[in-house]
Amino acid sequence: MNPTYDFKGQVALVTGAAKGMGLATAFAVSGASVVLADLDGELAGREARRIVDEGGAAIGLACDVAEEVQVAAMVDRTVSEYRRLDMPFNNAGIQVPPSDAAEEPLDNFERVTAVNQRGVWACMKHELRIMREQGSGAIVNCSSLGGLVGLPQRAAYHGTKHAVIGMTKSAGVDYAARGIRINVVCPGTIDTPMVQEMLEGQSDAMAEIMKEQSIGRLGHADEVAAAVLWLCSPGASFVVGVALPVDGGFTAH
Ligand code: NAD
Q: Does residue 166 carry a pLDDT above 80?
């Protein structure tokens, strides 16, 4: 993975970096200094030490992206440690249990919105305050196939993921001429702890997922990381406000 990109001298910030596709991206961003931020700061710290052991530069810290104060502190810490910010991947997100739209508990709606939508909003806000001074960099947000299509029982989660695309496009057109590109990845079903948890809870879930998988398998976290790195690379220098499906063809039919 990532044999060609060299992000030497750049600073990456990944939220939700202790597991899944955030972790894969933090490990793949070779050459850059990386801040791994996660609700689980201890695990983020351990993963950062593994990167350091492999010869990279990394720190791990605790941050709940649903809390703007913590997001501001995360960005402050990044800049005090590494002096700049070039490549944030605003990846942290959660699922809530599937629900009929007429039955969805308010708590689920509030929780998923606070993390998935307000979290990305707060991250972009505080990252852009640093990046607009530099006049350079690339932000990648994390949506989902759920940002592009609807599925039964998913109104709350899909609503947040549609919102991430809307925020990306609006901020993207605002900042393109100021040297900052903002794009969004839309993963399909990727084999991460989030999906493993979902599969444990529903015995027929894998068969259901496979019905829709054009490519006939789940995606790997590395395959999302590869798309994120491309969006941050000079190869994507004219790519702005794009919602890039990385879904094995799910949204193609
Ligand atoms: P995961 O659950 O495997 O890992 C997510 C990480 O985010 C965990 O380490 C968790 O501690 C952290 N996190 C959760 N809430 C947080 C918060 N409030 N603040 C900071 N960190 C928090 O998830 P994943 O599958 O790697 O998913 C990553 C992103 O991709 C999410 O936004 C998710 O919605 C999205 N996504 C996942 C899939 C999939 O199939 N796995 C598909 C589409 C989109």
A: yes
